[in-house]
Amino acid sequence: MGYPTPAPPESITPDDLPYYADPTTIQNEKIEYPFQILLMLAYGCIKLSIVSFYRRIFVIHRGSFIDLLTKTTSVVIILWTFTFIMLIVFACGKHFWANWGATGDQLMYCPVAFTSEYGLAISDLILDGFIFLMPLPFIWRLHLTTKRKIAVSGIFLLGASAVGASIARLILYIQVLKAITAEAEVDTNRE
User: Fold this and answer.
1) Would you call 59 helix, strand, or coil by DSSP?
2) Contact 81, 40 (CB under 8 A)
3) Which one of 15, 28, 127, 169 is most buried, by most CB atoms within 10 A?
4) What is the average pLDDT value for the chain, to the nearest integer?
């Protein structure tokens, strides 16, 4: 949300630092938590709308290859969206408070939270790439001149910006997650 991380109080020892979270950060993370869920829903809806657009343009007969491909892709997108929403909601099991707790608490109680972020970024990139390339073979089967096929392909290739955004997000996720978890040494026996 674009806010500076406040410095911890001087009374915090280095051993307690991973378990410290100031009230402003906790409040901001509580606000961000529902947005993460809505963001996953938005990703899924955007992907489904693109596949639905492909169905509208390319599906002529039920049971055709493109019909089955777009239906299968839609099911995969729905399952992908549902899976990552559940991973966000239940990343910390029954310790929901750890979602907006200190880094040490997140590392202790949310074992899948950080790895699921990698999974999200990588699978999003793969899905975007697949959705981006899906219409190209069907465009080249149209009865158009080569010049027009290139022009139509170019319009569909504007979707490359989504793939570029997925690559950028993957790189940022990796950098941020490494920075968050690199300095945190967590005592798993601590309660």
Assistant:
1) coil
2) yes
3) 127
4) 83
Give the number of C-alpha atoms closer than 13 A to the C-alpha of residue 18, restricted to the C-beta side: 18
Cα–Cα distance list, 37 to 40, 41, 82, 127 (Å): 5, 6, 10, 19
Best CA proximity match to 53, nearest among 42, 64, 63, 66: 66
> Tens digit of pLDDT for each residue in 81-95?
999 999 988 888 888
* Cα atoms in the 13 Å half-sphere on the side-chain side of 59: 16
CA atoms of 172 and 89, how far apart (whole Å): 22
Reported as type and span, the H/E element at residue 66 is helix 65-89
Rounded to two decimals, what is the model's pTM? Answer: 0.77
Look up tokens 């969206």; give the residue: 81
